[in-house]
Specification:
Number of strands: 13
Bound molecules: thymidine-5'-phosphate, aspartic acid
Largest sheet: 6 strands, antiparallel
Number of domains: 2
Strand content: 25-35%
Radius of gyration: 18 Å
Shape: globular
Order of helices and strands: EEEEEHEEEHEEHHEEEHH
Length: about 250
Amino acid sequence: MARRTKVYEGKAKVLYEGPEPGTLVQYFKDDATAFNAEKKAVVDGKGVLNNRLSEFFMAGLNAIGVPTHFIRRINMREQLIRAVEMIPVEVVVRNVAAGSLSKRLGIEEGTALPRPIVEFYFKDDALGDPLVSEEHIVAFGWASQQDLDDMVSLALRVNDFLSGVMLGVGIRLVDFKIEVGRIWDGDFQRLIVADEISPDSCRLWDVKTGQRLDKDVFRRDLGDLADAYTEVARRLGVLPSNATHLTKPTLIN
Ligand code: TMP
Ligand code: ASP
């Protein structure tokens, strides 16, 4: 059987040519990295969980009219997506101080922010994805001012949707990161949510206990990462409630 053509391999995912022009297959690996890949591990089942969770969030966004690259899930580890021209910027939205914001500005982790704060990071591993301003992005041509306005508006709509969904299952959406891509319909272009939305790219805290249910479990050695992601998936109903890790077959009643 002819192997699919690999288009790109990142730290957590591989992209293959899709079945039709304008599509790609996105494969979720079990690899976990942190601190620009200084810390690495293979976490059994993480790819399966993130494929499912990203499907859940992206399909939900599509359903409320926030455009994303997601078309459909193909199997346990793969989904069909629209090919986009990636904007080389990570868009972070923060509702609660944590992580690099707390460190940079000396705000205690867990402090509610007066309003959602949107930040941009330039996607460049060699530079460690530095924080940049809109001025940098426009001046260096990574995106236009109109693109930036559209990115902020997409990011805030994602924030409202994700915050609500998470709160409904007892999880506080502290912050998250999205990536955005450009698609063309003839001469007309627009920006859509791309990459993934999963506990790899969010901070998720249990509302009652503050327990971390995201990649900080791995970054800070707080326990079993797959257990944390499984808990998120179970609460959202994307896993049968008796499932633990998805690496073994599970009896479904
Ligand atoms: P930060 O506090 O480390 O800047 O992270 C903010 C949010 O962005 C957090 O939810 C984790 C996510 N994130 C990524 O998805 N990828 C990254 O490379 C980094 C640094 C953060
Ligand atoms: N930047 C990602 C993180 O820390 C992964 C990595 O840098 O290797 O979440």
